[in-house]
Amino acid sequence: MVALAPELAAQTVTPDGARLALPLRSDSLVGVFEGRTPCGKLFVEFTGYDSPACEKVKWWLALYRDPAGEPGGYRFEGTRVTRTGAWAIERGTASQPDAVVYRLFTDLPVGSIALLRIDANILLLLDGDRRPMVGDASWSYTLSRTNRQAAR
How buried is residue 52: exposed, middle or buried, by Cβ count under 10 Å (0-12/13-18/19+)? Predict the structure, then answer.
């Protein structure tokens, strides 16, 4: 297990095109979430990594607050990919106008991905229409809170 650096900077582009560095400090950690999803368009668009032989993707996601206590940076570690960026809290899905949605921003063409906050322990990946993605008997699109503070 790799320990988190006390301060790590996430370089990101915000939705309005501004480039900024966000501190990822272990003392500002909101939560760490893990899961395994099928490979597919979402993963390729979010990470820029495409592997035709890919069956599943391991997700490790840490969310951090900024110094004012607002959403700040994130660190994603997945199968062969690491990404950092900014995140924000939004409201509403296709069927729940008051639902809490976490939006992870990326400098890749997809721009961002959305996660529905079910509760403090469960996040569901949303499709482009803000509907929960549906898995199958083998894989889901669910990320669960973990106590692990760093990926592999």
Answer: exposed
Closest CA to 35 of 122, 116, 150: 122
Contact between 68 and 51 (Cβ < 8 Å): no
Phi, psi angles (nearest 5°) of residue 70:
-90, 165
The helices-and-strands tally (H runs, E runs) of the chain is 1, 10
Instruction: Report the distance separating Cα 24 and Cα 152, nearest Å.
Output: 18
- Report helix, strand and coil shares of the chain as percent, to nearest 5: 5, 50, 45
Residue partners of 3: CB distance under 8 A and separation at least 6: 149, 150
Q: Are 14 and 20 in contact (CB under 8 A)?
A: yes
Could you tell me which residues are beta bridge partners of residue 37? 57
pLDDT digits (tens, 9 = 90+) for 67-90: 888 998 999 998 778 888 899 999
| pTM metric for this prediction | 0.80
Q: How far apart are CA 11 and CA 1, in angstroms?
A: 24
